[in-house]
Amino acid sequence: MTLQAMPFVPGEVSGLLRHQLRDGESDCILLLHFEDLVPLESPPAGLIVIGGAPLSHPMTELQGLGIPTVIVSRRQAEELREGERLWIDGITGEIGRGEVPDPPVIAALGNTPGQPFHTADGGAVELRASITGEQGARDAHAVGATAVGMVRTEYLVPSHGRMPDQAFYEKAFNAICAAADPLPVTFRLLDISVDKKPTWLGEVSGMTGLLGMQGSRLFGTRPVSSLISAQAAALANVSRDFPLRVLVPYVASPEEFRHWRNRLRAWLPDRIPIGPMAETPAAALAMPEWQRIADFVSIGCNDLMQCFFGADRDIPDVAGYLDPYAPTLLRFLDRVARAADERGLERVQLCGLLMQMPGVLPILLGLGFRRFSMAPRLIPAMSRVLARTRLREAEQLAGTVLEAADSGSVRDLLGMAPETRPPTPWSQSG
User: Fold this and answer.
1) What is the distance between the alpha carbons of residues 150 and 287, in angstroms, rounded to a whole number?
2) Are 63 and 152 within 8 A, CB to CB?
3) Which of 16, 34, 190, 372 has the most crowded CB, counting CB atoms within 10 A?
4) Around Cβ 293, how many Cβ atoms within 10 Å?
5) Are strands 371-374 and 348-351 parallel, antiparallel or unpaired?
6) What is the set of domains in the chain, with CATH numbers?
7) Is the per-residue pLDDT at 108 higher than 50?
8) What are 400-410's pLDDT values in tens digits?
9) Do 79 and 47 form a contact (C-beta atoms < 8 A)?
10) Residue 345 — pLDDT band, cuts 50, 70, 90?
C-alpha cells in the first residue's frame, strides 16, 4: 500500500503510527488533525497531519522543527491504522507500510555558506534562510545558506512573557549574527498580527480579522512604537560588527514605506539597507516604485496568496482555494517579475512556502526569480531541485504554464497526483 499525500517537510522516516504520543516514545509517526497542532514537547519521528492548511502559521512553525511531515485528507486518514508500521517521505509525499525503502544514492550537495547554489546549467540562485532565533542561524550556516533572508523578530521574547527592551534585542540580535557569521542577516521588524499577538500587548482597536491592524500598521500604536524604536537602536549597534538589513513588515504602499523608512533613519545609520515586505497584491505591483525608493524588497507569498485568493490561510476548510498551481497566481507573479527590470530583480526575494510546493521552484526560476528564503531544513531539498533544473527548460515550462487554462492543466504538466491537492468546499458539495 502506498498513499500519495501532500509533501510538506522533507525527510524520510519509519515508525509505529500513533494517534497520541506515549511517554518515552519518540520514534513513532504521529497522526493528528490540523486543529490539534500544539507545540510538541517531545517531537515524534514523523508527522501526518489531517486536513492541514499548508500556508497557515501553525504549519509554517513545523518547518523549523525539521520533522518529516505530510498532509492527508480525512478519507486517506481512514486507511491508516493505529499501531501499524509506516514510512513517510516528506519530499515526495508518499506513505507506505513497513520500513523506508532504500533511497537512491544522491551525491552530496555541500555549499559554502554565503555562496549561491547553482542549477544544472550553472545558473546562480540564492537559497536564503528564514529563521526565528539563534538556533535557526546555526542551521542556516550548517546547510550552506547563501544568507539569512529573514529573522522573524516577533518570536524573540524574554522569559515570563515580559516586554522586550533594547538590551534584550541587542543581545538576541548579536547572538543571531554571530551564529550566522559570515552570512549577511536581514531582520524583519516586529510583525504582530491577530494570530501572533504577544502576551504583553493589550487590546488594540482594529486588530481583528485577516486584513486588520498588523505589521507596520501597528508601528504608531503604543506600546508597539516603543519596541520598534528599541529594535532599531539595537540593530544600529549590532551593525557595527555584522552586515545586516532591515525589513518593514506588511507595507501596503510606497507612501507608507517612505514614512517608516524616514522615521527609522532617526536610529539606523545609512549603512543599513531598508526594504519593504510586500504581502498584498497592491504592494507587489508597486515594483517600479520599490526600485526607486527601497534598497531591496521581499515578497511574502503566504499573505500575498491569502489576499489574492480571498481565503484565510489558517482555515483548513478554504485551504484548497490557496492553489499554488493556479495560472492566475503564476501570471500575477510573472507580471511582478516583468515590472522589475533584470537589475531590479536582483534585489527581489521571495519568502513563504510557495517555492517548496512540488514542481513550483522551476516555474519561479522560469519567471526570472533567483532569490528565495525558506526554513533552513528545506534548503538541501531545494538545492537538489536546482541541481536537476536547466534555466532554458524552466523558461519554456513557465511559458507553457502561463498559457494553461486551469490549475488541473498545470498539475498535469508537472505530473502531479490529484491527491496532493487539498479539497475545496465547492468540490465536496452535493
Assistant:
1) 20
2) no
3) 372
4) 15
5) parallel
6) 2-97 (3.50.30.10), 117-420 (3.20.20.60)
7) no
8) 999 999 999 99
9) no
10) confident
